[in-house]
Design goal:
Belongs to the 'phage' integrase family. The chain is α+β, with helices and mostly antiparallel strands and 406 residues long. Helix content is 48%, strand content 9%.
């Protein structure tokens, strides 16, 4: 068969009484297997150092593109040339893996797009980055060397209690954040570990999920804080002074407050995603998939006013290199002090936007659409920019903008 391309793979059809194989003519040993049931996957076939023929499944055709699979196949076949046996390594992992080994497996498979998360989509890059941070900060130090099959519910709930009490807390190092622990972090980390074990059990990497039945600690039930109208005005006053010193940072903070965008949705915003004619931003990827998010006219004017620096594609370019601006949390800390407010965070700006929308009488469904929430398919209903939602975005944006300008 010629090179395995998207068109060639899509043309393959299963047969009712036997497995069908198609092999790539450029990368020897790389192919596709179709089962009579219709299940299909990319595979490699090779002989190990002992001369034994081995076959290794790389991933589903529904998850991997031909080029992604080809790259993975090239990596695995490269190990074979070095005398290693990838199939044996996977088999050994299924024996008695440690928690760290299972986490490594998860990060590799999810990073390659072979594990499906919410709504049966590959795990989002932002989610994977958070998972990696929790694994390195909390999981490896407390459970990394433990064998998964030996874990009990008591072990996992004790693990959660240690995180909540601050056992994994760390001081700031360089520009990094501060790890303080707490019930929220503890519960989310246990939930993440439950998901990792469930994925590993489903793939046969471990026999069962030891976290099933473990209870997540309840949160502190504190009422989520928002900025009042007076606090928004106070923040606006100090931001006007900050525009001369840090114009990019001040603009990024303003955009989050005017739109309810998540921190990375604002900071990593690219100019090509802005649709000025429709007054919206067309995100190719968010936590809940591709989205069209309506924005108000004040937010659109702010975006259009941002200067283009060099060849940067970002609306808010970084000071060094070609990446986007990243220091918004530090800027918010300084602005909070200057405005004499309790610490303001990117999430507080998002919650404030939602609260103002509620104050203006908009329904939970509309607010969810403005924020890009995907619960019960809300985002999908507004993918074509419902006129009422567009008007809501503009009214909320205008209200907050007038307070900022004092």
């Amino acid at each position: 068969m010629p090179k395995l391309t998207k068109r060639a793979v899509e043309a393959l059809r299963p047969e009712p009484d036997r497995e069908v194989f198609a092999w790539d003519n450029e990368l020897r040993g790389f192919g596709v297997r179709l089962r009579p049931s219709g299940a299909s996957s990319y595979i490699i076939q090779y002989r190990n150092s002992e001369g034994r023929s081995r076959r290794l499944t790389l991933g589903s055709l529904q998850v991997l593109t031909p080029e992604q699979a080809r790259g993975l196949a090239r990596d695995k076949l490269g190990l074979v040339c070095k005398g290693e046996d990838p199939a044996d390594e996977r088999k050994a992992l299924r024996g008695a893996p440690t928690v760290s080994q299972v986490c490594d497996w998860y990060l590799e498979e999810a990073g390659a797009g072979r594990l499906l998360g919410r709504k049966r989509r590959p795990v989002a890059a932002t989610t994977l980055a958070l998972d990696r941070s929790r694994i390195d900060t909390h999981v490896r130090p407390l459970l990394g060397t433990r064998m998964v099959r030996a874990l009990t519910i008591a072990d996992l709930e004790t693990f959660q209690a240690h995180i909540a009490s601050g056992k994994t807390a760390k001081e700031r190092v360089g520009r990094g954040g501060v790890t303080t622990g707490g019930t929220g972090v503890a519960g989310r980390t246990l939930g993440m570990l439950h998901t990792i074990f469930e994925q590993a059990a489903r793939w046969g990497v471990i026999e069962t999920n030891p976290a099933k039945g473990a209870r997540k600690v309840a949160g502190d039930n504190k009422r989520e804080r928002r900025l009042s109208a007076a606090e928004v005005t106070a923040l606006g006053q100090v931001m006007r002074k900050a525009r001369d010193e840090s114009p990019t940072a001040a603009a990024a903070v303003t955009l989050m407050l005017l739109t309810g965008f998540r921190r990375m949705e604002a900071l990593a915003l690219r100019r090509e995603w802005i649709d000025a004619g429709a007054s919206c931003v067309r995100f190719p990827q968010t936590k809940t998939g591709a989205q069209v998010r309506p924005i108000g006219q004040a937010a659109l004017r702010l975006l259009q006013m941002q200067p283009i620096l060099g060849n940067s594609a970002f609306v808010f370019p970084g000071e060094i290199g070609n990446d986007h601006f990243v220091g918004v949390s530090r800027v918010l800390t300084r602005l909070s002090v200057a405005a004499k407010l309790e610490p303001v965070t990117p999430h507080l700006l998002r919650h404030t936007f939602a609260s103002f929308a509620g104050d203006l009488g908009y329904s939970e469904l509309t607010v969810a659409a403005l924020l890009g929430h995907a619960s019960r398919g809300v985002t999908q209903r507004y993918v074509h920019l419902d006129k009422a939602t567009q008007l809501a975005a503009d009214e909320v944006c205008r209200t907050i903008s007038e307070l900022l300008e004092g």
